[in-house]
Specification:
Its EC number is 3.1.11.5, 5.6.2.4. Keywords: ATP-binding, DNA damage, DNA repair, DNA-binding, Exonuclease, Helicase, Hydrolase, Isomerase, Magnesium, Metal-binding, Nuclease, Nucleotide-binding. One of its GO terms (biological process) is double-strand break repair via homologous recombination. GO terms for molecular function: 3'-5' DNA helicase activity; ATP binding; DNA binding; exodeoxyribonuclease V activity; magnesium ion binding. InterPro entries: DNA_helicase_UvrD-like_C, DNA_helicase_UvrD/REP, P-loop_NTPase, PDDEXK-like_dom_sf, PDDEXK_AddAB-type, RecB, Restrct_endonuc-II-like, UvrD-like_ATP-bd. The protein has 5 domains: about 260 residues, Rossmann fold (3-Layer(aba) Sandwich), CATH 3.40.50; about 190 residues; about 260 residues, P-loop containing nucleotide triphosphate hydrolases (Rossmann fold, 3-Layer(aba) Sandwich), CATH 3.40.50.300; about 140 residues, PCRA, domain 4 (Orthogonal Bundle); about 220 residues, Lambda Exonuclease, Chain A. α1 crosses α2, α12 packs antiparallel against α16 and α24 runs antiparallel to α25. The protein contains 45 helices and 33 strands. The chain has about 1250 residues and is of the alpha/beta class. The longest helix is centred in the first third of the chain and has 45 residues.
């Protein structure tokens, strides 16, 4: 079916349409133009009605893309409004034709005029204004965002629970399932089977890495000659099939080892005699060094328990030796060599069977994990991105599916799917079931099959091709490239404009034309060719690439490397080359490391934008463990010296020796680390680390940040350090203590339980050469692009999980290599698409290293650059047959016009001269000086901070109102006090727990912050009207470091607490979860005029526990707190605070004394005020005296279920609460 040129004014909208947008052809601009047409119901073949932004569904694949699309569309709407506003005044058509915002097609004034004749400018302005105002409501989603929205919005039709919880990273769950399968199926197997599993599968995580792309809830189809092996139980397969295959192989391995041992002396003598004289062997195939290395490997194998057969053994077959001799020479013979020839075919067949067994085991693993995943998801609310797709697809195919599709189609009459080449069968089934062949709707797929490069993520080019067939005649293309230099466009056309350029006939290359004039790259006064090729070896490529970039940047400093427009009227400003204008594209991280190192040796900073390294692998992570350990052990000389010896502190050996020898210096560091420990305890690990990074050493003018900034790769080091500090702060909430946090940190460094957020963050891109993988570069553009390795990389043989698509375009796993040609063809086709993406990223020039001749190895292998330059002559098989042209110079001259490329030879030795960045003689830029005044006294405080402030001021000032401002910012959590271990209990208290053995009494539990946090967490998580679960008690024991003998006493105690009567006689067990709020957080606004003296007057008048004035600083900002429990009982609202304090008695007198000591009366007044304000805003007819029930303080160690002990209740005076309200909100 021929592809038509797309005209954004006349393209039909009320149908299924496919737009193929080649690289740089203005896809996003076109989408925005079509969006405007839909808003205005304009143009030929318009939609049947004008649509709003909430009715036009736009789906893309990343969050960044959705944001970019939304902003681009918003901008186009705004500019179109301005055009229509001006057009309404003077009816001048040129307003639309002569603008940089090509809302309409410039070249067709007649079509534009007809377009405008049908539009009322006033109505157009009204629609555009409404659209601009509502852009925040625009239906622009990622594919997963759309699925989640539909599942939640139509939960009844889709059959989805309302409490669906999206999990962005399933690594932890998958690791758990993989470990479970490994343990259940592989433990207890025979030695031979276990050795095979360990050697082939290695570990559960290694298996998971191989199969993860196929864990989508539906098991992959398989092509295999013995399909019953896939259905038998795993245990049966291991013990019957695999064990018998291993036994046969083991016998043969033992036979081979015995034969080698028997004949090794004779074989060695033959080779030594050969090398003593003139060797008969070709030095590239069997020189003496090769003989020594190969026999060493074989000897290691013979002396080991290994059951596999090393490849080195097959170099000693008579057939190989006969082919390894020099011309005219004859290889010596030996019966062992002939014996190997006889055994090779049989052994290779046995090895092939074991290779198949390994794949069958992988399939068993895949099937089991898919099944367990589906089962887990059915019983848990957590859903992954893939689950969202599967659930919506299943919902659309269910009995209610047609109704659901109608609802979605009615909500979104038009849908635009961006990046459609990256779709898969599941995604296309979703949208096709909603839109394809349906009346009164439009469905537009926008993509480029030449850029479908994400097969490893599940993208399926065959789904795209099926969708292209469904679109029929409504297939369009964008024919102008607005990105690149016109000569570069022609060069790319020359490389791909031949039949089957992308292997498959139905992925066609349509040459594009230049869309606008672009500057050219001018270096040393000469306009550079759009493609620059450099011939040599792969080993030379990295160094030459780095040196070429150095030369460019050196010339740029002399104004000899610029981007210059052809003529001044192009309206394009000439610009000088900068490091960030250059990108080096690679395929893998090891190549990125080579380029980064080569650039670094020349003094050129770079950033690897595709870095997926885990931050815990960096040196700074390991060094940080020593620093954290020193903070935990501030009086340990060993820990202190370990910390100071790290590269983070960067002390010299002499400085370290001085600290070690001089007691006062070491004492000073111990004091400093003790202070760090104190900050860690009080404020958290992040503030402590920030303090460490900012502190200066004695006699030092710079801090850690400054010292690191002066070193190579400083930005990378600082980024990693700050990232690690943030991860530690996040993990602190999940670990009970500082030592537990350090243990967690050490486990991460060892590689256990790593998460996606631990991937290294990118440092700044400014003034840095970019290194990026081809996959990551898709959709981006760079001024100059270097491709150092692409032409050297032969395509490897089949993957472990080799996929091919059957006649129904469904993926299948080709286990027996029966469809090897198909699977390899798919792989080669993707290689061509990757090459196309790499070559179309540049605006001005592509530089590429090439081999002098392709296929120079004994067995020439396929390469995408060779395929393109030979115009497909090398064929679409991994091994090259025949004798195609392989000389780079000849291939280039036949393929490209001479003016569009240059070819040079890389020198054998490359300069390692360093680049000297140009110094700017102009005055340095500086930010304007701020002369305004910033309020320094605003902060967030809490009850705990106020109580500490009062105690401090009482000691030092003794006045009712201090003059300084509060700068407190704390976590506002109410931690219980550290207890006196030697507190004596009276008889009354001992009687409370007389049924408990003394050592298991609640009074025997060690108190303090940790104990309080763990008990608070229990009450927060536990549903009061439910029995206490064993798992809850186990968690308590683990947190409190108690053994299992405490399970029963803890249950008895906590059940007693839950049964103890509170205010109005209600018990915790009687409180329904719907009638309570736990850990209710609040913020009270404290105005600048907060009057401490007035506050104390109110307390003196209406608060009986008042004894002496509170001495508080002048406070401004927010008062933050957490109320442990707010509950409703008989239409009254109560607040409750748990206390784990250990008292000598728990009668009313003792509790009142404890509350006075710790100022808990101040706490409950502030909490009551917060609850009062909250209820005032939530209850329409709220009245304090009617609805506020009171305050309860639950001293849980004294609550034995009988009432009368351990509970304090009160109701603050209404006049006091109203007075405090006026004071706080004054």
């Amino acid at each position: 079916m021929p592809i038509q040129h797309l005209n954004p004014i006349s393209t039909p909208l009320q149908t299924t349409t496919l737009i193929e947008a080649s690289a740089g052809t203005g896809k996003t601009f076109t989408m925005a133009s079509l969006y405007l047409r839909l808003l205005l119901q304009a143009g030929d073949n318009a939609f049947s009605a004008p649509l709003t932004v909430e009715q036009i569904l736009v789906v893309t694949f990343t969050d960044a893309s959705t944001q970019e699309l939304k902003e681009r569309i918003r901008s186009r709407i705004h500019l179109a409004k301005a055009q229509f506003s001006a057009y309404r005044e003077n009816q001048d058509l040129s307003l639309f034709l002569n603008t940089e915002n090509e809302f309409l097609v410039k070249e067709n004034g007649e079509l534009t005029a007809r377009f405008l004749e049908r539009l009322d400018p006033n109505e157009a302005l009204r629609r555009l204004t409404f659209a601009e105002q509502n852009m925040d409501l625009a239906a622009i989603y990622t594919i997963h965002g759309f699925c989640r929205c539909m599942l939640m919005q139509y939960a009844v039709n889709s059959g989805i629970h309302f409490n669906l919880e999206l999990v962005t990273d399933e690594t932890e769950l998958l690791n758990q399932l993989a470990n479970d399968f490994w343990r259940q199926q592989f433990y207890g197997q025979s030695f031979a089977v276990s050795e095979f599993i360990h050697r082939k599968l290695v570990s559960p995580q290694n298996v998971l890495k191989k199969i993860r792309a196929y864990l989508k809830g539906e098991t992959l189809k398989v092509s295999i000659n013995r399909p019953h092996l896939l259905t038998i139980p795993t245990d049966e397969f291991l013990q019957r099939e695999l064990a018998s295959h291993l036994a046969a192989t083991t016998d043969k391995v033992d036979e081979l080892k015995s034969a080698w041992i028997k004949h090794f002396a004779e074989i060695s003598a033959l080779f030594e005699a050969n090398y003593a004289g003139t060797s008969v062997f070709n030095g590239n195939k069997f020189k003496q060094d090769y003989f020594i290395a190969r026999t060493a490997k074989i000897q290691d194998w013979v002396n080991s328990e290994r059951r596999d057969i090393p490849n080195e053994l097959w170099y000693f077959t008579q057939n190989y030796l006969n082919g390894a001799v020099l011309k005219g020479k004859t290889a010596f013979t030996h019966r062992f060599f002939h014996y190997l020839d006889e055994q090779k075919a049989q052994i290779e067949a046995a090895q092939s069977q074991l290779d198949l067994d390994e794949k069958i085991l992988l399939f068993h693993y895949l099937r089991a994990l898919n099944s367990q995943l589906v089962s887990y998801k059915q019983h848990h609310p957590e859903k992954s991105f893939d689950d969202l797709l599967r659930l919506l697809k299943n919902a659309l195919q269910s009995e209610r599916g047609e109704q659901l599709a109608t609802f979605i189609r009615h909500q979104y009459p038009f849908a635009m799917i961006d990046e459609f080449q990256d779709t898969d069968e599941q995604q296309y089934q979703i949208f096709s079931s909603i839109y394809v062949n349906q009346p009164d709707c439009g469905f537009m797929m926008i993509g480029d099959p030449k850029q479908a490069i994400y097969q490893f993520r599940g993208a399926d080019i065959f789904t795209y091709l099926k969708a292209a067939e469904d679109a029929g005649r409504d297939r369009f293309t964008l024919s102008k490239n607005y990105r690149s230099d016109s000569r570069l466009i022609r060069a790319v056309n020359g490389l791909f404009d031949f039949p089957a350029a992308f292997i498959y006939d139905n992925i066609r290359f349509e040459p594009v034309k230049p869309g606008k004039n672009q500057p050219h790259f001018v270096w040393r006064g000469k306009q550079q060719a759009p493609m620059a090729f450099y011939s040599g070896t792969r080993e030379q490529a990295a160094e030459y690439c780095a040196d070429n970039i150095r030369q460019w940047l050196t010339s740029a400093g002399e104004n000899q490397a610029e981007f210059i427009a052809d003529t001044p009227q192009d309206g394009i400003q000439n610009t000088r080359l900068r490091p960030e204008n250059i990108a080096v594209l690679v395929r893998k991280s090891s190549d990125a490391d080579r380029i980064k190192s080569a650039l670094q040796r020349r003094g050129i900073a770079s950033v690897y934008l595709s870095d997926r390294t885990n931050v815990f692998d960096c040196t700074e992570a390991r060094e940080l463990t020593f620093i954290l350990a020193a903070c935990l052990n501030p009086f340990s000389e060993r820990h202190i010296m370990n910390a100071l010896a790290t590269g983070i502190f960067a002390f010299s050996v002499a400085q370290l020796q001085q600290i070690k020898r001089q007691a006062e210096l070491l004492d000073g560091w111990m004091t400093r680390f003790e202070n760090y420990q104190r900050i860690w305890h009080r404020q958290g690990v992040l503030p402590m680390l920030h303090r460490i990074f900012l502190d200066k050493s004695e006699g030092d003018e710079v801090n850690i940040i400054g010292r690191i900034s002066a070193r190579p790769n400083a930005e990378r080091r600082l980024t990693d350090l700050l990232h690690l500090a943030e991860l530690l702060q996040e993990a602190a909430a999940l670990n009970e203590s500082e030592s537990a946090l350090l243990s967690w940190f050490e486990r991460q460094i060892q590689g256990n339980d790593r998460q996606a957020e631990q991937q290294v963050r990118l440092e700044s891109e400014q003034n840095l050469v970019k290194i990026v993988t081809v996959h990551k570069s898709k959709g981006l553009e760079y001024d100059l692009v270097w491709l150092p390795f692409l032409a050297f990389d032969d395509v490897k043989s089949r993957d472990e999980i080799a996929i091919f698509h059957d006649k129904n375009a469904e993926p299948q796993w080709d286990m027996n290599a029966l469809h090897q040609d198909k699977s390899m063809q798919e792989k080669l086709a993707e290689e061509m698409r990757l090459l196309y993406v790499a070559l179309t990223r540049a605006k001005y020039q592509v530089a590429m290293a090439l081999p002098t001749e392709f296929g120079g190895k004994r067995e020439a292998c396929w390469n995408p650059v060779w395929y393109a330059l030979s115009r497909g002559e090398i064929g679409d098989s991994i091994k090259i047959t025949g004798k195609p042209e392989n000389q780079a110079a000849a291939l280039l001259s036949a393929c490209l016009n001479a003016e569009n490329y240059t070819l040079e030879t890389m020198p054998e030795t490359v300069s390692d001269e360093k680049w000297q960045p140009p110094t700017n003689a102009e005055a340095p830029l500086a930010a304007a000086t701020f002369t305004g005044k910033i309020e320094q006294n605003w902060g967030v405080t809490s009850f705990t901070a106020l109580a500490q402030m009062h105690e401090r001021n009482q000691r030092f000032h003794g006045e009712e109102s201090a003059v300084k401002f509060s700068e407190i910012f704390d976590d506002a959590l109410d931690y219980d006090e550290q207890q006196d271990e030697f507190l004596s209990l009276n008889e009354e208290t001992a009687v409370l727990w007389r049924d408990f053995p003394q050592e298991y009494s609640p009074l025997a539990l060690k108190g303090g912050t940790k104990f309080g946090v763990i008990l608070h967490r229990f009450f927060e998580k536990h549903d009061f009207d439910q029995p206490i679960e064993d798992a809850e008690l186990l968690a308590l024991c683990q947190g409190l470091q108690l053994d299992e003998s405490w399970l029963s006493p803890l249950r008895m105690w906590l059940e007693s607490v839950l049964r103890t009567p509170l205010s109005a006689g209600v018990k915790l067990t009687e409180i329904n979860p719907k009638n309570c709020l736990k850990e209710m957080q609040f913020y009270l606004n404290l105005n600048r005029t907060f009057d401490v003296k007035a506050f104390n007057r109110l307390l003196r008048q209406y608060h009986p526990p008042y004894q002496r004035p509170y001495l508080l600083d002048q406070i401004q900002g927010m008062l933050r707190g957490f109320i442990d429990l707010v509950y409703r009982h008989e239409d009254k609202y109560y607040l409750l605070d748990y206390k784990t304090n250990l008292l000598s008695a728990y009668n009313e007198e003792s509790i009142r004394a404890n509350m006075r000591q710790h100022h808990y009366d101040l706490q409950y007044l502030l909490y009551s005020l917060a609850l009062h304000c909250f209820l005032q805003r939530r209850l329409p007819a709220y009245d304090y005296e009617t609805h506020f029930g009171g305050v309860t303080y639950a001293y849980v160690r004294g609550m034995n279920g009988t009432g009368g002990t351990g509970v304090f209740t009160t109701l603050p005076d209404v006049r006091l609460i109203r007075g405090l309200e006026e004071l706080v909100h004054a």
